[in-house]
Design goal:
The chain is of the alpha+beta class. It has a single domain, classed as Cyclophilin-like (Cyclophilin, Beta Barrel), CATH 2.40.100.10. The chain has five helices and eight strands; from the N terminus they run E-E-H-E-E-H-E-E-E-H-E-H-H. An eight-stranded antiparallel sheet has the order 3-4-6-5-7-2-1-8. The protein is globular and about 35 Å long. 37% of the residues are buried. Keywords: Isomerase, Rotamase. GO terms for molecular function: cyclosporin A binding; peptidyl-prolyl cis-trans isomerase activity. It catalyses: [protein]-peptidylproline (omega=180) = [protein]-peptidylproline (omega=0). Its EC number is 5.2.1.8.
Length: 252
């Protein structure tokens, strides 16, 4: 089928993921498990490395390309299932047509070719986005998210992005019980999806950096701050004692 592939000899080692350029596109998938919203995953797309693959995913998140030429269905991930989940390996979704791994199509109509830049990247860590296929140059709408490194997929599946926020949602997907054919017992559905403005992500990142820096600076002066805080506690205790005495006098 169109699963996440099987090992093939001679797969190229490729380059490191640090080569992803600036100006990336950010998209989100908001997920429900058994009709309960479990949160949003935000992904950075490697549009500088794999422009065609990234644009396909972006448009399928936005639903801006209308109806598919072959499926005659909306080219949109909203309502699509994660139909295959293998803990310790990956979660596969994107079949907006049949919902079982046999359907879907790209925004270009049917299938499109592998991009060399995506094949050269390595399946080296959790949270990477990669295209599911049924062989070379058979990319449609189906994709998978890695739960851990899977180097046997290198050179066979086109990597096009990575998760940057919503790791707890990915954890929840991995934790869903599955049948013997790897299909989740509780339905995992993309409830909402779309593109995010890059500057919004940037603001969040700046805030995170500041909190880390503040933590580091406070850590270095922890001895002085702890002594001052203990002084404050002593003063507070004295004030409390005074209040108690006043209270006793008032009762008399």
């Amino acid at each position: 089928g169109r699963g996440a592939g099987s090992p093939r000899d001679g797969a190229p080692r490729g380059m490191a993921l640090s080569s992803a350029s600036d100006g990336n596109i950010y998209v989100y998938l908001e997920v429900e498990i058994s009709n309960v919203n479990i949160g949003r995953m935000i992904f950075k797309l490697y549009n500088g490395i794999v422009p065609k693959t990234a644009e396909n995913f972006r448009c399928l998140c936005n639903g801006e390309r209308g109806t598919g030429l072959i499926t005659k269905m909306p080219l949109h991930f909203q309502g699509a299932k994660f139909h295959r989940v293998i803990p310790g390996f990956m979660a596969q979704g994107g079949d907006f047509e049949l919902g079982d791994g046999r359907g879907g199509e790209s925004i270009y109509g049917g299938k499109f070719s592998d991009e060399a830049g995506g094949l050269a990247l390595r399946h080296a860590k959790r949270g990477l986005l990669s295209m599911a296929n049924s062989g070379r140059d058979t990319n449609g709408s189906q994709f998978f998210i890695l739960f851990k490194a899977a180097h046997h997929l290198n050179g066979k599946h086109c990597i096009f992005g990575e998760i940057v926020d919503g790791h707890a949602t990915l954890d929840a997907i991995e934790g869903v019980k599955t049948q013997s054919d790897d299909r989740p017992i509780a339905p995992i559905v993309v409830a909402r999806c779309g593109q995010l403005e890059r500057r919004v992500i940037g603001v969040k990142r700046v805030k995170r950096k500041k909190t880390v820096e503040e933590a580091n600076s406070s850590g270095s002066s922890s001895s002085s701050s702890s002594s001052s805080s203990s002084d404050k506690k002593k003063k507070k205790k004295k004030k409390d004692k005074k209040k108690v005495k006043k209270g006793k006098k008032a009762k008399k």
